[in-house]
Each structure stands twice: as C-alpha cells, then as structure tokens.
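Summary for the steering committee. One of the milestones for this cycle was to obtain a three-dimensional model of the protein with KG4 bound, which we needed before selecting residues for the alanine scan. The sequence and ligand used are listed below.
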Amino acid sequence: MRMVNGAEMDQVMNHKEPSSFPSAGKSQVQVTHPVSGTRPVSGTRPVTGTRILGIETSCDETAASVIEDGRLILSNCVASQVELHARFGGVFPEVASRQHIRTILPIIEEALQQAHLSLGEIGAVAVTRGPGLPGSLVVGMNTAKGIALGSGLPLLGINHLEAHIYSAWLAAHPPQLTAAGDMQVNERQPLPPEPRFPLLVLIVSGGHSELVLMKGHLDYERLGATLDDAAGEAFDKVARLIGLGYPGGPAIQEASAGGDPRAFKFPRAWLEGSWDFSFSGLKTAVLREVRDLQRVHDTLPAADLAASFQAAVVEVLVGKAFKAASAFGAAEILVAGGVSANMALRGALHAQADFPVHIPPIALCTDNAAMVASAGYYRFSAGQRDGLDMDVLPNWPLSEV
Ligand code: KG4
Ligand code: ZN
C-alpha cells in the first residue's frame, strides 16, 4: 500500500478551502457486491449452518459480509474509498478512517439485508483486528464490539493476512431466494474443492508479501517475507513513477496489455538461500530508466515499462512460490491478497502443472469482509472467543496469531 507522506498530508490539511477536502457524502459511497448473480434454484437445500458476520476496515475498503459454514457467501458488500484517495495518489489515513465511520453501519445493514438475516440469526461477529491502519481498524473494531455488546453475539478478532488466506475457501456462487422468500443453496453448484494441506501460501497485498507453510487450519509457519516494499506497494509506486493512475496494480496490468515484457531488462531479486523477497531494487531500476528516458523523450513508453516491470515481479513471485512448495513438500499452492488479482500472475501460476494452485476469484482478492467471516468461522469452530477489552493490533504478524 502506498500511504500519503507527511508533506503531502500537510498540503491537504492546510488547504484553505474546506470544499477541497474530500467530502464523503453519500454520493461517494459506492457499494459493490462483488459476488452475486442469478442462478436457477433447482435441486436446492435450505441454508441452515453457522453464519458469521464479517467486518473489514483495515485500509480503504469498508466491508461487511455474511458467510455460512466458512465457505458459502450469503452477502458480500464492499464500499470502496478508492475514488476518495485517488487524488492523493495513495491512501490518506485520516480520510480513510473518517470515511469508515460514515459507511460502516449502512454497509453492515446492507450485508444483513442481502443475506435476508437479522442479527438473531447470526452466530458470531468477526472483525479485522490487524494488521492495518490504526485509525481505520478502530472503526471496525468498535462497531463490532457495539454489535457484540448489544446482541450478545460472540466477538472474534481476525488477522487480516489470515483472512486473505481464507478467501481461497470461499465459493463464488451465492444462494438464491425461492418464490417463498427462503434462502436456498443450489446443490448442482457444489462448493469448489478445499485447498489441501500442507499448503504453500503466497500472500501478496499492498502491505505484505509473505511465503507461509500452512500445515492445517489456522497453523502457519512463516518462511519468508519482503525485506522492503510489498509487491502491491511496488506496483503502486512504479505506476506513479511512470505516470499511471492509482491504485497502481490494476493500472499497470491495463497498461501492460499493450506493452512488451522484454522491452526493458529489469532486475530479479532472487535472494538465493532465503525465502524473502525484495522489490525496492526493481523499483529503483524503473526510476533510473524513467529518468534516462525523460532526458531524451517527451513521453514515456508506459506500456513497455509497465509490462517489463510486471514480468519481473511475476517471475520472482511464481519462481519462489514453486521452489518453496517443492522444498517443503507442499501438496498445493494458495495465492491470495490484492496482487493475486493480477492476470499475468494468475496466468503464470496456472500455466505450470507441478502443483494444483488455488487463487480466489478476482473480486475476492482485494480487501473484503467475506474472507474475514470465513477465517472467523474456522476460528469460531476452534473455540476462539475474544473479550470486549480486545484492542486493534496495527502490526500483527501472521506468525503471532
Ligand atoms: O489486499 P489488498 O486489497 O489490500 C491490502 O491488504 O494491502 O491489496 C491492495 C494491493 C494494491 O497495492 C493494489 O495495487 C494491488 O493490491 N492490486 C493489484 C491488482 N489489483 C490490486 N496488483 C497487481 N495487479 C492487479 N490487478
Ligand atoms: Zn488486504
């Protein structure tokens, strides 16, 4: 994730016209329902399992979702703040938390309504506890505590990275309403196969790039992580360097479509002998190339730069994930987090035949609350219950959950 720096923040905070500060009226709240659609309801069964209400506010998405038995999406609502932050070229923490406050209750109401459930039919409330922006996390946490206190529901604090992992357990087809208004699961659309352990997990998001060995549910061994920029952060920063929009990942992907991935020979930091990553050298190489190009050209070959950068990131991520999977005897590979939405990365992962690969549907790669509810279900089943004295953990590593 690229965060707005101090100087940029001062510039906005000291701006004299109040109207220039992002107003976050209702028109700015764009709720999307990433996983929905209509399907026939023949051969169905009623929805009866344990339902978890998930709440996610760790960064710049305000999200709520109801999941049944960890895998079935009954509702999944995301209010993205991306337009609000785009003008700053990164996430503006102060703006993010204010917007979460405005959006959190409507989005939870919407998630319950879409699932056709009241709080009385929910089994527990799961909320992202960290890692993330402190001011943003607090909004979700306090809301979840309020719900737990008011309704008597059990409360669960969820690690955001663990939630990303569990997005691969979610099924992308929602249940349907019958003519009588009952929620039904379509038996003809069975849930996709569950990832099998031991799993080699690659988490690539705006804030993290981690290689993890998952030996069973909720059981993680951290093998390596980025030493500097996260993969998504590199996408965001490089997009900015070559004059593409925010967020950088989708912008680089789009620009790459018309570019040559071999146009520029950018470095690959293999860091032999370790399972760590490093993307800052690659970022600096792009910066140098951009400066050299700007000395002689009026416009940058953005497509070639984007494609060459993307190819360098994808090659290292895929190469290290497969090497680690072989080294640790993994049965399968799971890739999750915002960068796993990248089509070049998905293509490269699926192109090989060495390991079955699980990647969440694109709509579930970036931040959402369905994944929080899914992880919440497995935690709830394992007996986790958190108290109302639970606080957010903005720097909570997966190895300490
Ligand atoms: O997981 P996420 O939504 O938030 C964090 O937990 O950080 O990840 C956001 C990151 C951003 O850096 C964004 O640029 C990147 O994921 N991203 C992508 C794509 N879509 C989102 N990166 C590459 N290709 C994409 N299609
Ligand atoms: Zn995330």
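Key point for the committee: The two ends are 22 Å apart (CA to CA).
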